[in-house]
Amino acid sequence: MVSEKKKVSVLAGFKAFLMRGNVVDLAVAVVIGAAFTNIVNSVVKGLISPVIGLVGTQSLDAYKSCIKDTCGVGPDGKATGVELLWGSVLNAALTFLITAAVVYFLMVLPMSKYLARQEARRKAKEGVQETMEITELEVLKEIRDALVAQRGANGGGGLAPGSRDGF
Questions:
Q1: Dihedral (C-alpha) 103, 109, 110, 116: value to the nearest 10 degrees?
Q2: 55: how many CB neighbours lie within 10 A of its CB?
Q3: pLDDT of 31 above 80
Q4: Could you give the CA distance from residue 59 to residue 94 in angstroms, rounded to a whole number?
Q5: Model pTM above 0.70
Q6: How far is it, in rounded angstroms, from Cα 103 to Cα 94?
Q7: What digits encode the pLDDT tens for the residues 56-101?
Q8: What whole-number distance in Å separates Cα of residue 14 and Cα of residue 11?
Q9: Contact indicator for 94, 64 with CB cutoff of 8 Å
Q10: Is the distance from CB of 133 to CB of 141 less than 8 angstroms?
């Protein structure tokens, strides 16, 4: 009975975790990010690599260096030498930079500006409300002082202005 109840609470906790807004937002971001990665890869392979290819080869993956012996295939069919595939690294770095730039300029920067405007509006609204509260307090003090002065003028032995007793 206890283990069954514990299983139910674990599942309920897991369900609550999944239904939180952050997890759903994260899942949507991963799916959009995967689709976006395909677009960026296509741009790098279809546009940037050919432009770089004007200077060298058509594919960045073809750029490599051999750091030990002569690179190739030996008479026994095994690879000889040690290749550094720096073209693949360059390709990945370009893909990352393009992805980061697009995410920053199309998503992060506009959202930051929007949130800054919202915060400025909220602060302005709070400032107006605070001014209204101070003005209201001043009006109430003036009314109190006028009532105290009126009682004093009528010989009612009113309270001194500024005292809190009775008001």
A1: 150
A2: 6
A3: yes
A4: 13
A5: no
A6: 14
A7: 666 677 778 888 777 777 788 787 778 888 888 887 888 788 878 8
A8: 5
A9: no
A10: no
Helix locations, the chain, DSSP H: 2-19, 21-43, 49-53, 86-103, 109-153
Residue 116, token pair as written in the block? 């800054």
Whether the CB-CB separation of 23 and 50 falls below 8 Å is answered with no
CA atoms of 83 and 151, how far apart (whole Å): 100
At residue 134, what are phi and psi to the nearest 5 degrees? -65, -45
Q: Torsions phi, psi of 75, nearest 5?
A: -65, -25
DSSP structure class, residue 74: -
155 φψ region: left (φ > 0), alpha (ψ -120 to 50), beta (else): left
Mean pLDDT estimate for the chain: 77
Are 153 and 146 a contacting pair, CB within 8 Å? no
Length of the chain equals 167
The b-or-e profile of 108-145 (16+ CB within 10 A means b, else e) is eeeeeeeeeeeeeeeeeeeeeeeeeeeeeeeeeeeebe
Backbone angles phi, psi at 4, to 5 degrees: -65, -40
Quote the radius of gyration of the chain (alpha carbons, Å).
Answer: 36
Task: Give the CA distances from residue 159 to residues 97, 140, 145, in Å, rounded to whole numbers and listed in that order.
Answer: 75, 16, 9
